[in-house]
Write a structure and sequence with these properties.
The protein has 2 helices and 3 strands. The chain is α+β, with helices and mostly antiparallel strands.
């Protein structure tokens, strides 16, 4: 089962009023130990409601990121990338041709 985890990695804010102007984010799709990461940033404009910097929560800022047109297809793209990685791992086998497999007793 694919799990997509989002997190905020950084925020740029105005020194004058604390207004966040840019948000860095990371999203990682994972399944069975295989991960497909994606990183990016969005620009933020002042909205009607202003929350002081020290009162922001990660959930609130993640909502801004997920609502941005720049991140509209992130989860779809991550799932596609993870599926490609999973297919590649399933189609490959590691080992050495000169090493005999261990004998189990």
């Amino acid at each position: 089962m694919t799990i997509i985890t989002w997190k905020i990695t950084d925020m740029l804010r105005s020194a004058a009023d604390g207004l966040v102007t840019r948000v860095g984010w990371e999203a990682v799709a994972s399944d069975a130990g295989i991960e497909a990461p994606m990183r990016g940033a969005i620009d933020v404009n002042r909205g009607d409601a202003f929350t002081p910097f020290d009162q922001l929560t990660e959930e609130q800022v993640l909502a801004w990121v997920k609502a941005s047109p720049k991140t509209a297809n992130v989860e779809e793209n991550l799932t596609k990338r993870l599926n490609e990685l999973t297919a590649h791992v399933a189609a490959t086998v590691n080992g050495l041709p000169w090493a005999a497999p261990a004998v189990q007793e």
